[in-house]
Amino acid sequence: MSQTTFATLSPFPGRVRLVGAGPGAADLITVRGQNALREADVVLYDDLANAELLKLCRPECERIYVGKRAGSHSVAQTEICDRLVTYAREGWQVVRLKGGDPMTFGRAGEELQALAEAGIPFEIVPGITAAAAAGAVAEIPLTQRGLASAVVFATGHACVDRGAAPVNWRALAGLNATICIYMGTQRFGVIAAELVAGGLSRHTPVAVVADATLPTQEVRLGTLAEGDTLTANPERRPALIVVGEVVRWREFCEAVPAWEAVG
Ligand code: SAH
Fold it and tell me: Where do the domains of the chain lie, and which CATH numbers do they carry?
């Protein structure tokens, strides 16, 4: 991309907007997020952002895929940070489009740090995070008087070897909270055992919501005792695991006719 053409024409200095694409369905992005895409000169996007959203961009907008399917490795986070800084310095309006909410398990922290260090103006446009979407489509209130007064968002991914603090599942078991687990399908057997060791009943209900808000959406119900048989995920679809008594609440919803069947 050339510095001369755009930077001299643009009334704005280059800037970066981290935009939440929402959980899956294209119409679950915010209006502000749509406007950011319409105004963008460059969009860097990855797997979980619905590709339909890129149709909002102007034809001349450059759309750059930086997700897991880019070659055998995902584009390194440092390279993404470098590119954001470089494009903004060239005077472009840059959008970093991320699935769900950018500030929730979205590596936004590294990107904001790089932008701040480089003195690049940025804005964050929040999105609907997967836990909120999973609760909605599975008809599970994440909080409910008398059942759960707190919600925890936890990662099930074991990145302990890369210096991240491990999740203390036993401690979470004692909180009387709904536990929403991102990236947890592959380790759910271990996680469920830890939650039981921390004091949760083996009969605690669990919902596994895959591809929430997409046509391929699937909700599986079970208990902690079932462990990873509940989360077998050969298609490797993104799935959110909800653990807690609130999962039973959906039984009330089952008595109600489906929305499509009304009127
Ligand atoms: N920033 C994202 C999370 C990225 S981490 C957000 O706020 O939602 C990726 C994990 O998010 C996946 O492993 C899965 O656990 C969850 N996830 C993302 N999209 C999902 C969807 N449509 N349905 C279920 N889980 C989803």
Answer: 3-125 (3.40.1010.10), 130-250 (3.30.950.10)
